[in-house]
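User: Structure tokens for this complex, please. No commentary.
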Amino acid sequence: MTTPTIVLVGHGMVGQRFLEALADRGVTERARIVVLCEEPRPAYDRVQLTSYFSGKTPDDLSMVEDGFMEKHGIELYTDEPVVGIDRAARTVTARSGRVVAYDHLVLATGSYPFVPPVPGKDARGCFVYRTIEDLLAIEEYAKTATTGAVVGGGLLGLEAAGALKGLGLATHIVEFAPRLMPVQVDEGGGAALLRTIEQMGLTVHTGTGTQEVVTADGAVTGMKLSDGSELATDMVVFSAGVRPRDQLARDCGLDVGERGGIAVDELCRTSDPAVFAIGECALASDGRVYGLVAPGYEMAQTVAAVLAEEADEETGFTGADLSTKLKLLGVDVASFGDAHGTAEGCLDVVYSDSRAGVYKKLVVDGEGRLLGGVLVGDAESYGLLRPLTGTRPPVSPEQLVLPAGAGAPVALGPSALPDDAVICSCHNVTKHAITQCTSLPEVKKCTKAGTGCGSCVKVIEKLLPKAADKGLCDCFPYTRSELYEIARTLRVTSFAALLDSHGRDGAKGGEGCEVCKPTVGSILASLNNGYILDGEQAALQDTNDHHLANLQRNGSYSVVPRIPGGEITPEKLIVIGEVARDYGLYTKITGGQRIDLFGARVDQLPAIWTRLVDAGFESGHAYGKALRTVKSCVGQTWCRYGVQDSVKMAIQLELRYRGLRAPHKLKSAVSGCARECAEAQSKDFGVIATANGWNLYVGGNGGATPRHADLLAQDLSDAELIRLIDRFLMFYIRTADRLERTSVWLERLEGGLDHLRDVIVKDSLGLCDELEGLMAAHVADYQDEWAQTLDDPERLRRFVSFVNAPETPDPTVRFVPERDQIKPDLTILTIGTLEGATSR
Amino acid sequence: MTSVQLSPAPDSWMTVCEEARLTPGRGLAALLPDGRQAAVFRDRAGRAYAIDNRDPFTGAQVLSRGLIGTADGRPFVASPLLKQRFDLETGRCLDDDAVTVAVYPVRLT
Ligand code: SRM
Ligand SMILES: Cc1cc2nc3c(=O)[nH]c(=O)nc-3n(C[C@H](O)[C@H](O)[C@H](O)COP(=O)(O)OP(=O)(O)OC[C@H]3O[C@@H](n4cnc5c(N)ncnc54)[C@H](O)[C@@H]3O)c2cc1C
Ligand code: SF4
Ligand code: FES
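Assistant:
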């Protein structure tokens, strides 16, 4: 028996998949396999092409595992396009003159980008977007260009536009149809997409054709549009659709479709049974040419099964799902199933929020079965909805489109899916297959799921046992924000209860640790607003909170009274001076526009507080992960430039949020005009006056990693400003990790500032009422912790140096003079205990 | 009423405080007859511990103000200053093998 020869023409995504399928089925051992490849490199991931611009190298994009060809004895010739097929002689001829005889021929030649026949289309500066070579050329040319235009507002057009924008060009999109992505999304979805894309600074011309590419000296200078206008541009990328590459087939007399595509039957056989066609070049038996990779992969499997003589009734390509999910220019767009609602008697359920750029439509039949849908702006649920297609979902369709929080079942997770639900449609992998693996890398290796378009990865991750342990510490397997939710929803009010019910196995019943105790203490304080030092809560606080003062290096404490907005009367200044003088404290003006008194012994704290509280002061929470200061500039009242009363607003904010416990400390400032003397943009929430109200900035930070705050909203009234800050702070408290400043939290927040704006300005999660309610409760319940402590003799008992000698001060806390004030005497600490104690 | 007692030297016991004064999970400082200071703790299960109050890393008498916890099933206190942890039963520093603090016998009577 002679070895048969299989010749593959075209080594693209589907071609490579075909080779892998042959290897899987052992055909590579029984047959000689020759691959003729037009491009200068073996198959690469065309779907991820655009990631080249975000740093992926051509090597990163390769789809061929090292050594694959050698291992399976496959002969691969790159740069070697086939130029003719002789079906009678069963040979193909390549450009170099090489002739290869075949027993079976597989055409996987893909598509070519369609370029409309407009004058000037071949000028210098005109490109298409299909291969790595195209991208290299675009990148090179863009170096000398400032403006670029993309012809075509479909899926690929938007990708190309994103790439041009990323290369720093002012970018236009010209689309003939009245909306963007006409194939995938409907009118409402197109409108949502348009708004978002325009907001990113791209110019979109829909309902507009391209009539001519205007050139000078053979290079592009502009475009004439069908509305009579002319657009100046340095380069043009055509992305007006693709056409199957069926020329070879036509030339050798194989049947092709009226509108192109090599006609094949269910087993992907062309009109010559020795010749197959797969992928984008094929016209499938259902009369369609599929421009997506997943159907191509199925065809590849089909032909491999036929050649392995393993084809049975089940094998065969009868049509495929056209579902897609993409992140185009950062906007999620997904469509699946009968997205346009073409089935008879079907009904739409639509949710649309044009402010947020979110549009969701589900198509259902009379019995409530999900037929398909379109998601724009928020395609989170795609991974779950697609596998539910054809079934009656466990909750009503209205609930499926509503944003979480607005009555949507937050809990509809992947667990709701049946075992045979296809999770990865690129590789046709079911939930069952995925749950056999334990990690994402393993899933990718064993099932290939997640290695195509990547849209299923999120759902896969949810199906796997938690890969990286994100737990707070050795005691809890949960993050701070998860613990917050647990404590809030289950109304847990004690650390012990939380540890025993939700701690790790080995930690239950134990003490917890120095990480989780203060974290849970802060959560309980955020939720309950009670006095933080009563009962078990006392045991959770860091020493600073526990003493309502800041511990210094020699065991003494500092005292920081609140001075809201930095405004203080002479009388109060005098009281601070007198207290400091009487107790011999070191005084310093802090960086937070207030005064710090250092060097108090623990047993002196109550007396110092009494003096301060009597004079109208209260705790400044310098010790807490809580609101610190709201700094202000002098503002309109005095300053010639001021446009609002910044001091008044700063005081109002400081009094409103004082005592609020948070994952980390909170700082704020209010400036009276854009000169920004209060440095509001370096604060967790900063406010800058405008002629019309206030601008609110969030997520600023000084410290080790400074970050300028982002502008969240403009020209707010007093009431609007406060409402937004209420929501912002409560949302942060609810979702941030332990010791995560707002800056870091915002950087980590998925969707970033836009998402934050959606949630707290546009109320996309329907959370705002609740957030405002939590803040209202905080404001109503606030009490000064110093006064609370002074009022209760029991609470005061802990402020002694020694429990067995309450009248004796700690003799090791001693000071020496410096610049007319005191500083800690460190020598006494280094000599050890005995001497220290005797030199009282 | 139960009180917490500590042995500052062999064969001698002194009363530190009533048990109820010691919040489970926290500590208090006690002055010993010779001027040394001890940090006395009680855990959730009611067990008491006493170690020297002096934080050997800074010299400050502050260990009684640290948070206690459990690591690998063993009780520890974390210094409130620079957060090094000390085993409450052995005085051994969990973050630096070369450092140990004194441990005092305690009892509840
Ligand atoms: C007193 C003060 C310095 C001064 O003499 O001016 C100060 C002192 C301390 N700062 Fe500060 N910071 C002080 C203003 C600042 C500022 C400036 C400001 O608020 O405008 C910053 C940068 C702004 C910022 O936070 O974004 C600042 C960034 C820090 C950081 C770094 C935070 C970060 O996100 O990187 C820490 C460490 C931490 O909190 O984890 C810190 C921590 C500390 C601690 C609490 C360290 C500690 O745990 O002992 C210091 C104790 C103060 C005490 O014992 O009373 N301090 N610290 C200032 C008190 C302000 C107030 O009135 O409350
Ligand atoms: C930017 C971009 C983004 C995309 N995004 C997605 C997506 O998100 N989801 C999705 O499903 N699909 C996407 N696609 C489409 C997807 O890339 C194609 O469906 C897939 O590549 C089809 O595979 P193929 O093997 O049929 O064709 P190709 O990958 O195009 O491979 C065909 C190969 O054949 C070669 N060839 C042609 N003629 C000859 C000849 N005569 N001799 C030798 N070789 C020849 C070609 O040079 C080419 O290398 C995207 C495409 C692009 C360009
Ligand atoms: S920020 Fe403007 S209003 Fe405030 S002090 Fe500076 S210049 Fe004056
Ligand atoms: S659905 Fe595309 S990789 Fe899984």
